[in-house]
Amino acid sequence: MRVICVNTGDKYDQWYTDNLKYMIDKYSGLEYDSFEVIDEELYGGVYDKLQMFDKFRDGQNIYFDLDVLIKGDCNQFLRDRITVCHAWWRDAWHTPLNSSIISWKGDVSRIFKFFDSKWTDMMREYYRGIDQYLYEVYRPDTYTEGFCSFQTITEEADYDVYLFNQKHEFMKTTQWCQKYFLQSE
Question: Per DSSP, what are the bridge partners of residue 105?
């Protein structure tokens, strides 16, 4: 099994990658063979996540955004069929998916290949990002439990994973979170 993250561009410094690995090792309960970091900027922004579907075509895979807090068991998120978070907190005009956690087993490279075959057109059509792309083209399964969004629940509660959803700066300033994070020395 592999754990995957993406750190392209300059939005997230190295602390976020190191912190994710720290939380995976300390709290997630996942027993993995490799921790993979995609750092090649191919399309820019969130679309760079799609590379993982091409690079990792076998075995069990689980992906986490860098702006997550992991404080409990993540084995509940392992799936054979591609699965993403149900984004119950989003407005109706957006998509009901959130790709902060993605799991799959085997070869789903078709997701990358279809997008890559005409990526400039795809970026225009799916301008809201890969959540829109996955929802409209593939309709993946969804997780409904075990996580929450910091956009709606900002106090510590009984969730194994907090998704910061583009509010990564709050990770370093929200006091209750600090006990779960890698501390700078």
Answer: 60
CA angle at residue 53 from 49 to 59, to 5 degrees?
130
The number of domains in the chain is: 1
What is the extent of the structural domain holding 47?
Answer: 2-180
CATH code for the domain in which residue 79 is found: 3.90.550.10
- Measured CA to CA, the distance from residue 73 to residue 95 in angstroms comes to 27
Model confidence, pTM: 0.96
134 domain residue, yes or no: yes
Q: For residue 71, what are its two tokens?
A: 């404080």
Residue 27 lies in a domain: yes
Query: pLDDT 10s per residue in the chain (185 long)?
Result: 999 999 999 999 999 999 999 999 999 999 999 999 999 999 999 999 999 999 999 999 999 999 999 999 999 999 999 999 999 888 766 789 999 999 999 999 999 999 999 999 999 999 999 999 999 999 999 999 999 999 899 999 999 999 999 889 999 999 999 999 998 64
Q: How far is residue 85's CA from residue 89's CA, in Å, rounded to a whole number? A: 11
**Short-list 51, 37, 39, CA closest to 3:** 37
Q: Is residue 185 part of a domain?
A: no
Q: How far apart are CA 13 and CA 144, in angstroms?
A: 30
